[in-house]
């Protein structure tokens, strides 16, 4: 029999024929030892994932990971996605300090007047975009000169916040003393009287906005802004009882801070964990020292302040402190210098009594017994941070 004839020969289909075991037969030897016969082609699944069959909350959660541009692109896919993209909780961030699409990724550049005008146009389009979607904000970043009577940034920001939802706003970064990307020569500087009037317009508009925020966004937990340290502004700031992180920058070099005002602020914020202060003590207030009290504060940074001297510290939870003694170029005779310095307490004495849990002092990790035994490294840190007569042998402040 030829090879071809043997291939064409079929087994006898009669019941009595003893052919090879059939695949899947439990009586076969291969089945007894668990050996599987070769499988056929893998079954194909559905061509697409049934995303639209997911619950709406799941779809929104997936969309929440997209960037703003990607969300706008997704809205063009179909009418269903377009409706979903108008859900307020998909629009959580209002960042007016971005440079816009035409300057994307170019932080810190100096722009021309033409580019600044283009940025202003983008700002208004961006605000309309968020308002049309009824954004429910968690984060707001903006830098507008609220005293600018030509552009009316104060009115713009108020109208924008009224058109969106701010009840869940958690983080605010607002510089209300200058406009983002505005060229330095856009408005020529005026006389000192004009500058004073402009500063007055700025903090009046800021206080109006701040009053609204106490009603619109009482849950703010992080805040960064210039601060005028007026009694009214401090009273408004103390209403944000959920604040955990606070950064206050100086408003104007001629604006001083009353010691009682600073003490009242830190006392009135029970959940405050981190505080960054940039205080410029005017020359007329030389000799003034400041008390600071907080039961919750764990991190304090006053390294960017000038002339800030503490008279009392009651910070039982503080773990890290950053403070730096700065040179201001003020030279006094020895008698005047000694008279002022003798009124100031040594920072080391204040820390030993008022900060029992302190661990880091200007990035220096303190030794376990630093409160009772001073050592060389700690003394070097004090020479860079303490204004007392023991740690300052010259007067260049």
TrEMBL record:
It comes from the Eukaryota. GO terms for cellular component: SCF ubiquitin ligase complex. One of its GO terms (biological process) is protein polyubiquitination. InterPro entries: F-box-like_dom_sf, F-box_dom, FBXO4, LRR_dom_sf. Coiled coil: none annotated. Signal peptide: none annotated. Residues 48-94 form the F-box domain. Residues 1-39 are annotated as: Disordered. CDD domains: F-box_unchar. This is Novel protein. It comes from Xenopus tropicalis. The lineage of its organism: Eukaryota, Metazoa, Chordata, Craniata, Vertebrata.
């Amino acid at each position: 029999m030829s090879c071809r004839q043997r291939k064409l020969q079929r087994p006898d289909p009669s019941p009595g024929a003893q052919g090879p075991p059939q695949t899947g037969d439990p009586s076969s030897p291969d089945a007894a030892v668990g050996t599987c016969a070769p499988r056929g082609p893998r079954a194909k699944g559905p061509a697409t994932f049934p995303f639209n069959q997911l619950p709406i909350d799941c779809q929104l959660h997936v969309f929440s990971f997209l960037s703003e541009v990607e969300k706008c692109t997704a809205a063009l896919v179909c009418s269903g996605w377009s409706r979903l993209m108008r859900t307020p909780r998909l629009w959580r961030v209002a960042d007016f300090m971005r440079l816009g699409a035409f300057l994307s990724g170019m932080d810190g550049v100096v722009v021309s007047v033409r580019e600044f005008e283009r940025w202003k146009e983008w700002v208004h389009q961006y605000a309309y975009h968020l308002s049309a979607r009824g954004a429910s904000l968690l984060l707001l970043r903006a830098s507008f000169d609220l005293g600018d009577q030509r552009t009316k940034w104060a009115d713009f920001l108020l109208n924008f916040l009224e058109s969106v939802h701010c009840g869940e706003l958690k983080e605010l970064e607002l510089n209300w003393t200058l406009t983002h990307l505005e060229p330095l020569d856009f408005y020529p500087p005026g006389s000192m009287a004009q500058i004073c009037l402009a500063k007055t317009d700025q903090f009046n508009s800021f206080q109006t906005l701040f009053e609204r925020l106490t009603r619109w966004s009482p849950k703010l937990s992080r805040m960064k802004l210039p601060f005028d340290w007026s009694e009214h502004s401090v009273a408004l700031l103390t209403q944000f009882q959920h604040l955990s992180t606070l950064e206050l920058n100086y408003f104007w070099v001629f604006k001083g801070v009353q010691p009682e005002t600073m003490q009242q602020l830190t006392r009135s914020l029970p959940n405050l964990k981190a505080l960054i202060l940039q205080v410029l003590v005017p020359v007329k207030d030389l000799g003034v020292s400041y008390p600071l009290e907080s039961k919750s504060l764990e991190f304090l940074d006053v390294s960017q302040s000038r002339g800030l001297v503490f008279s009392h510290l009651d910070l039982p939870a503080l773990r890290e402190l950053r403070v730096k003694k700065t040179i201001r170029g003020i030279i006094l005779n020895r008698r005047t210098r000694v008279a002022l310095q003798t009124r100031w307490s040594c920072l080391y004495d204040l820390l030993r009594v008022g900060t029992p849990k302190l661990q880091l002092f200007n990035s220096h990790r303190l030794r376990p017994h630093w409160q009772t035994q001073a050592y060389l490294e700690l003394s070097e840190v004090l020479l860079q941070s303490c204004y007392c007569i023991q740690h300052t042998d010259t007067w260049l402040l």
